[in-house]
Amino acid sequence: MTLKFASTAIFYSYPFYSLISNLLLKQTLNPVNIPSNILTLVAGILLTAVSLWYGQNHGLLPVQASEQAAQVDGLFNMMMTIATGLFIIVQGCLIFVAIKYRRRAGDNSDGSPNNGNIPLEIFWTAIPAAIVLMISIYSFEVYTQMGGLDPMASMGHKTPSQVLAQGGESTGMNMEGMVAMDAQRGSIALGLGATPANENKPPAVLIKVLGLQYAWTFTYPETGIVSGELHLPIGEDAQLDIAAQDVLHAFWLPEFRIKQDAIPGRETELRFTPNRLGEYPVICAELCGAYHGVMVTKLYVETPEQYQSWIEAQQVAQAAEPRTPQQVAVDVSKLSSNQYLQPYAQELGITPEMLQHMDHHQHHDQ
Amino acid sequence: MTAPTATAHHHEERLWWHFFTFSTDHKVIGIQYLVTSFLFYFIGGSLAGVIRTELATPASDVVSPELYNQLFTVHATVMIFLWIVPAGAAFGNYLIPLMIGAKDMAFPVLNAIAFWLIPPGGILLMSSFLVGAPQAGWTSYPPLSLLTGKPGEFIWILSLLMLGTSSILGAINFMVTIWKMRIPRMDIHSMPLFCWAMIATSALILLSTPVLAGALILLAFDLMAGTSFFNPAGGGDPIVYQHMFWFYSHPAVYIMILPFFGALSEILPVHARKPIFGYRAIAYSSLIISFLGLIVWAHHMFTSGVPGWLRMFFMITTMIIAVPTGIKIFGWLGTLWGGKISFTTPMLFGMGLISAFLIGGLTGVMVASVPFDIHVHDTYFIVAHLHYVLFGGSVLGIFAATYHWFPKMTGRMYNEFWGRVHFALTFIGLNLTFMPMHELGLLGMNRRVAMYDPQFQNLNLLCSFGTLLLAISTFPFVINMVWSWLKGPQAANNPWGGLTLEWQTSSPPSIENFDELPVMTSGPYDYGLGGKKADFSFLKPKQRVMAASAEK
Predict the structure, then answer these.
(1) B538: pLDDT confidence band, cut at 50, 70 and 90?
(2) Bigger pLDDT: B16 vs A27
(3) Considering CB atoms only, which of B330, B339, B372 is closest to A111?
């Protein structure tokens, strides 16, 4: 689909730049009679081929683990195709003029007095305008398909005072408050909502995400499981309700091409369907303090059976000993298998003292 | 234009120590601005050096994570508020009165006050390292900025308020001077394009900087007095801060780039011996960029607390900015096309600007697209994009302008060979440093991190190596500038054969600029239109010296 879109775009823009190069070569700026139609045809074909090839083969993006990822990549590839074409045209012009119009030794005269060309200027105003219009429409379409314009997600967000009134109470934003406040249907927060196909349907999996310095925690409301890792069944429509305990964080899944800030006092949302099994990084993308760089965990996309057995194992383990997200946060940093985390595990591990310190901060700020 | 013969005696009246005083001469103030901003460039660059040293390896092993956050916070603040913005004011101050044939700026004392707010503001900011510098990023988003190091954060706010005030005072001066003090024959459509750019810049400063001041004052109350304007723990809204902050800080990008777009429109015609291509299109596009620049701020908040429909609105306004920007780039290419290009250092930096800024512009359209921005927001892709705009655009523009007007400012010629070496090192270093960052961001490296996943190490090493080249590139520049200023060959009054009015007076210009009122006998870019016998001997230093002595 992308390839088709991009090639169509290039195809229709070809007459424009061939016209431009005609104007440049023939009409105004080239006193010598170069057979410009042949030149521009060859240049245009080469340009189109290179742009199309690079737009599809840049290899700059990680694997796609959701449908949204494929849509975003299609959009990016299209923009990359256009950008490659424009890049070659402008850099090519710079190199061309540097060679062709360099001042020769002993030539002390001025260049051509040409100081404008209204048709040409109209063209190079109209073409970028047409390009950005096209990109805007395509972006709008992709954003709609991703669920960005789900009215449930974008309209009914709560103000911080409502959130605090519901959950904050006098102790400020403790975890119980944050979880309790957000579960009402019809009053969902900002971010990516249901895709048009899923609109007005409840998600298959609903998970509460809490960001705190420096960990992500995940609460599964149906089962009461609290975990430092995110597990999702493949092919199921999952919704993350994202909150922050202390400062701004941003929940980012690079392989899913989705990101949403976690905002203290306001709930946000990401809804998506994983379609590739595997283990993916969950990254905090908004500066949240000194150890922002190690605020990472894992997302496991599993088969329904694996997912179910993980849920059951967690239920058994946590039945005896219910956990709070803060306790989980401690576990995350200690259990982290990433080698680069090891030097910081000690510093990072959220000790009881640090927790106390965090609480102290919040009380203090009120 | 026929230059009235200028005598070169007046500059003897200005002595070196005048540059350290509360002088009201716009030329002294312009050079004060320029030298001060270069000093802060070296400070900000050193901070970047430490940052890239830290990032050469995935572990946090050079500085502590707290100090790392301080370094990038102060790096950005210095580079924006103490380097690029004042450097724009430097050329505005130095060039505007000369270009419009005025004796000085409209409000000389205000001008001096505006400058003298900068050194204390800068020293104040740097002093924050003594008590723990701010570490919430230059964006200083609450609640983090309210929780990390109060003294440092408060110093940051005070410093920015001083620098912002300076910027506003300067903008008033530019506006009034350009509007009221042009020589009689110069209507707005025969004004040099640099003046158009400074009008657009000043309008942005006047409209947006007060909003930043408002945000900072409220933030200071939250910080010091425990109010809750932005603090969610007390019912405040951190998103409101983001809106207010970006209402200034997006226009700030244009405040930083437009003056050097203006300078480039001066430099290219002179060194290509060609009229500017599409004067009106380039002039008006500055104004359009300025207007659109005011209604795109929330594109910095596409993943923040901004509803979907608003994300779409800001996506479209942001996309539209590509059109006037494209007009400029194509206009500059049209200027070069059919010219007789001399590869002087200003021209090399000018063409380098087009080449590098283009990349920032193309990625700018990409990140305007909401679905794609959701992926790359707050990643190294953004770091790459912003540095291609601000280094590839503004900084290369500052260098082009510095070399181009160096003979006018100092009365001496810089060394062309070392200028070209400086360009080559800078251009290669810039691309090595920032190009790999695009890929890092796309693959999943977030920004503002002291430690990162080891899979990103090779690309980071490349970036750090590029930074080393950039560091090395400043040596030929500094030595060339200092040596040439003191001992360089004397420059002719008009070594480039330029047609704008500043080239009609002596180098350096006399105290009140023109011994007799300059006369416009042609437009500012009428190259190749006959009647002008420009002196092209400038490429050979010996001839240049001879030309200078012949004039005396």
Answers:
(1) very low
(2) B16
(3) B339
Is the model's pLDDT at B171 over the cut of 80?
Answer: yes
DSSP A16: H
Distance from CA of A315 to the nearest CA of B (A): 32
Measured CA to CA, the distance from residue A43 to residue A47 in angstroms comes to 6
Q: Is the pLDDT of residue A125 over 90?
A: yes
Over range B226-250, report the average pLDDT: 93
Mean pLDDT, residues A65-88:
95
Query: pLDDT class for A319, splitting at 50, 70, 90?
Result: confident
The CATH number of whichever domain residue B264 belongs to comes to 1.20.210.10
* CB atoms near residue B426 (< 10 Å): 25
CATH number, span A165-365 = 2.60.40.420
Residues of chain A contacting B527 with CB distance shorter than 8 Å: 110-111, 113
Task: Check A293 against B65: CB less than 8 A apart.
Answer: yes
Q: What is the pLDDT of residue B308?
A: 87
Q: Which residue of B has its CA nearest to A162?
A: B235
For residue A184, what pLDDT is reported?
Answer: 39
Contact A289 B148 (CB under 8 A): yes
Which chain A residues are within 8 Å of B315, Cβ to Cβ? Answer: 136, 139-140
The pTM of the full predicted model, rounded to 2 decimals, is 0.87
Q: What is the pLDDT of residue B252?
A: 95
Cis peptide before B436 (omega within 30 of 0): no
B448 touches chain A (CB under 8 A): yes
Is residue B463 scored above 50 in pLDDT?
yes
Residue of A nearest to B58 (CA): A340
Q: Examine residue B83 and state whether it is found in any structural domain, yes or no.
A: yes
**Interval A200-212 mean pLDDT:** 92
**Domain for residue B256, yes or no?**
yes
Number of domains in chain B: 1
What are the Cα distances from residue A257, in Å, to A109, A237, A242, B374, B377? 56, 16, 17, 7, 10
pLDDT tops 90 at residue A36: no
Q: In chain A, where are the structural domains located?
A: 2-99+119-146, 165-365
Contacts of B443 by beta carbon, 8 Å cutoff, 6+ apart: A60, A61, A62, A254, B455, B456
Contacts of A106 in chain B (CB under 8 A): none
Closest CA–CA distance from residue B152 to any residue of chain A (Å) = 15
With an 8 Å Cβ cutoff, is B235 touching chain A?
yes
Instruction: Report how far residue A101's alpha carbon sits from residue A97's, in angstroms, rounded to the nearest whole number.
Output: 5
| Angle between helix A2-22 and helix A118-146 axes, rounded to 10 deg | 170
pLDDT tens across B85-133, in order?
999 999 999 999 999 999 999 999 999 999 999 999 999 999 999 999 9
* CA B419 to each of CA A235, B19, B269, B401: distance values in angstroms, whole numbers, following the listed order: 60, 25, 20, 13
Residue B195 near residue B258 (C-beta atoms within 8 A): no
In A265-294, the residues whose Cβ lies within 8 Å of chain B are: 265-266, 268, 281, 283-294
Q: How far apart are CA A140 and CA A148, in angstroms?
A: 9
B-chain residues near A260 (CB < 8 A):
303, 374
